[in-house]
């Protein structure tokens, strides 16, 4: 598994499992039934944050977004959100993304 910074071209593949996870209604309080373009701003983090993907076998199987928790006084505290494709659960994807985020937060904050 490789974890790398996401690109604009990754969004449609991330959206395929983002939508499944949002439709489950068990994790994030994001709007339901979002279209591809609408959902993008809910997941693809802008600087100083970052969105990454976990890729294996030439497909994206997870994603994380991270950034400062709050501007100014809270900028030294990081926040992150995670998605793992339901077909790739229980394979350590979330754990690997979590480690990446912790390392990122230590470097950036």
Describe the model:
The structure is a single chain. The protein is an alpha+beta fold and 109 residues long. 35% of the residues lie in helices and 26% in strands. The protein has three helices and four strands; from the N terminus they run βααβββα. It is globular and about 35 Å long.
Flag low-confidence runs: none
Measured as a percent range, the helix fraction is 25-40%
CATH-level-2 architecture: 3-Layer(aba) Sandwich
Order of helices and strands: EHHEEEH
Detail the topology: elements first, then pairings.
Elements: E1 2-5, H1 11-24, H2 36-43, E2 50-56, E3 59-68, E4 78-84, H3 93-108
Antiparallel strand pairs: 1-2, 2-3, 3-4
Could you give a short description of this structure?
This protein is α+β, with helices and mostly antiparallel strands and 109 residues long.
